[in-house]
Amino acid sequence: MRLHRLDITAFGPFGSTQTVDFDALSAAGLFLLHGPTGAGKTSVLDAVCYALYGSVPGARQHAQGGTLRSDHAAAGTRTQVTLDATVAGRRLEITRQPPWERPKKRGTGTTVDKAQTWLREYDATTGAWKDLSRSHQEIGEEITQLLGMSREQFCQVVLLPQGEFARFLRADAEARGKLLGRLFDTRRFAEVEKRLAERRRATEARVREGDAALLADAHRMQQAAGGAMEPPGLAPGEPGLAEAVLSAAAVARSTAREQLTVAHCGLTAAERAQAAAERALDGVRELARLQSRFAEAQQRAARLAERADAHRQAQERMERGRKAESVAPALALHEAADADHRRATAAETRARALLPEHFADAGPAGLAVAARRAAEEVGHLESARRAERRLADLVAERAEVDRQAHADEELLHEAETWLAGWETTRARLRARIDTAQEAAGRAEQLAVRREPAQARLRAARSRDRLTGEAEQARRRALESAERAVRARSHWLDLKEQRLNGIAAELAAGLTDGEPCAVCGATAHPAPARKIAGHVDREAEERALAAHQDADERRAEDERRLGAVREALAAATAEAGDVPTAQLAEEAAELERLLTRARADASALHAAQEELRAAEAERERRLALLRQAEARSAARTTHRDNLDRERLTLQAELAEARGAAASVAARAAELELRAARLADAADAARIAEESAERLKDADGRLAEAAFRAGFDTPRAAAAALLDDAAHRDLQHRLDAWHAEEAAVRAVLAEAGTATAARQPAADVAAAEAAADTAARRLREAASARDAAARRCAELDRLSARSATGVRHLAPLRAEYDRVARLAALTAGTSADNERRMRLESYVLAARLEQVAAAATARLQRMSSGRYTLVHSDDRAGRGRSGLGLHVVDAWTGRERDTATLSGGETFFASLALALGLADVVTDEAGGVRLDTLFIDEGFGSLDDQTLDEVLDVLDSLRERDRSVGIVSHVADLRRRVHAQLEVVKGRSGSSVRQSGAA
């Protein structure tokens, strides 16, 4: 990277535009950047860094660009930095403008402009600049990719800061590790350590989980074995747990199988004893059954003897019933004839009661003749009944004609009335359609005006809300700025107090016979002493941290203030200065008018449909008028025909009905008389026939009773049994005979009689013996089943444990391997003799490269006396790897870099910085750094050492490099001819070049 030109406007102490021509300064190879304290020498370097990365180095970095603005700049001048540089062979121009709070162009107050960035590239073929991007992110990524370095690396390599490498020389391993880690980005190695540690913990947890499951199976096996197994006394994760569990499981399985064999033998003996007890019980129960059977038979024989008389009476009753069965048909015939005669006599009486008195003594033949005469008279009235029905139809039809005539008259009147108002209705509907169409057009116009009005109203409300938020943000930003100023003042006061007492702090580390870090003397006759209220390094760092925190809060508050002001400006630009209430009223009025217009326009379709319906109704009513007129003409002829036919039928019916109200009434009267006469004739005939049948049945019944041996028919009827009584009596006789046969059979059985002669059987004792044998069998079976289950459970758990051990073996091997690697990379392994972490190992390699590169220049600066070497020795009980020593060729001894004097520390730091720049450059992909800056430290060198240092810096021109020395040492202005002077004044600083080619 080579710098060509830098333009600074309203940046830092520079109130106006200043230009630095680096091409002219770099022509000499070595140039001096000088000026009084506070003039802004470092601000020139800050501008270079800001142009490339959008932020300034170290503690001067702020999140908001507003703090970069010069207090000397005019109100209308915007802060801007433009850098022309060649990076990776490409000529680029980067322009950056931080956020700017400027006065409003209209009205009072201020507004915030956003930060802007431009990137252009010079096209050598056309000789013109070409725009590449205006995106902050794209430009930042492009510059970082071309340089191959982050901002922190750039500030350490190109802008060699004052005092940083002196502290690096004297720092401990931890501090060196932090700086080198930032420069070489060794986070990936730390991530490897972290990943290995996480993987070790994960695999260890899985191994412990597997061991816990294995140990749980061991406890289950102990429970299954009934306490015959001792679980291993090892915790999950301890070596040998798997082997101990498997051994204990094998012993438990062997013991369980022995117990199963013993249980089998006991079960066999119990089964034999139980079978013998069951056989004895069966024999006793059979003897008891036979004895009970014989006793029961004797009791049944006694009961049969007691019921012998009743049995003989039942036999006699059954015999008389069988004799009466021969009389039963005649008896049933007599009962049926008697019932028929009674029913016929009653029916005749009821039928004669409905006839006139002159038919009371008429016989069946006379009643039949009278019925036939009445039926013939009914037949003569049939034609008159048809005429009567026709007359009723004519009357109804005449009424329907009258109804239709009346309906047509109403229809004609309604149609004529409706058609009379047709023109008025059509005009009214046409007016409604025109009004709705006009409202639709008005609604479209109002809808176009509504959206801008609502947008202005929303912007006005945002403007009112953001006005209050902006004021609150301004107060917070002002308060945080005041706190930041107080914190900075406090830090600077403490820093000044510490610098005033630094001699006492350095004297605290002096040891007799050891050289002083400042002057190199080994005698310390009067070392400084700490006074009351001495400020140490920790107090200063706490104050610095408090200052940085306050500054970060201030930057965040200013960023928020800028965002709120930007939003407020956008809302104000859209809403204008019109009050929100007025805009709300205007928007509400537009909304009301739009709603009313849309409501009026919504009636358009309904009005059009109503007009079409009215026109269709007019056509329909005209058609109805024509149809009603045609129907009226046809109806007049039809009415005359109906009237003539009605008069003819009325004359015929008056003659046919006689004194009755109607022909139908006359016919109904005759039909009822004929039916009653016919019923009475049938009833008289049936009564005569039933009397003859009853007389014949009496003779037959008397003859049948005499032949059966009964004195009278009544005696035969009393002896007759119905089906239910016969079945019951026969069932009792059959049961008595069956019981008698069964008793005789039991008493005749040889085995039963033999059992009855034996002593009574003791069933309870036999059952008790059988229960005891069965209980012992169940206990033996339970013991055998428990032993079998114990064996099966132990086999299952043992198999599962063996499977778990096999599955856990690869995981345990993986854990051992990962644990060894994690311990090795973390520096805790016994194999890592120097307790060096992986990241420290990589940083140690980088530090060794840096020390080798720095030695080449340090030997020239120190006239071959000093050499920087890397040391990986452990410091006390800490870890090793980042030690840095210097070898003194005059004494041949190696010592710590903290023992160098002030001047020696400077040129050693300079050599270290240049070496570090070479290594970081190679690490970044070999990007050439053709422009370097060295900030301060030359005042501690004597003339000879200064010449040697300048010779080394001047030798950098061999690689076509240019080095800028930032210093206010007067002797350098004589030795270095190309100079960039920063001059400060009341209106701001300015730059002045001299001695450049």
Name a few traits of the molecule.
997 residues, alpha+beta, 6-stranded antiparallel beta sheet, 17 strands
Terminal CA distance reads 21 Å
Rg, Cα atoms, Å? 67 Å
Percent of residues in helices:
55-70%
**Major beta sheet, strand line-up:** 2-1-4-5-8-9
Number of helices: 26
Task: Kindly summarize this structure in a few lines.
By secondary structure, the protein is of the alpha+beta class.
What does this structure look like?
By secondary structure, the chain is an alpha+beta fold. The chain has 26 helices and 17 strands. Strands 2-1-4-5-8-9 form a 6-stranded antiparallel β-sheet. A 6-stranded mixed β-sheet has the order 10-14-15-3-16-17. A hairpin with a 4-residue loop joins strand 12 (883-888) and strand 13. Helix 7 (187-224) packs antiparallel against helix 22 (763-826). The radius of gyration is 67 Å and the shape is flat. It starts with a strand and ends with a strand.
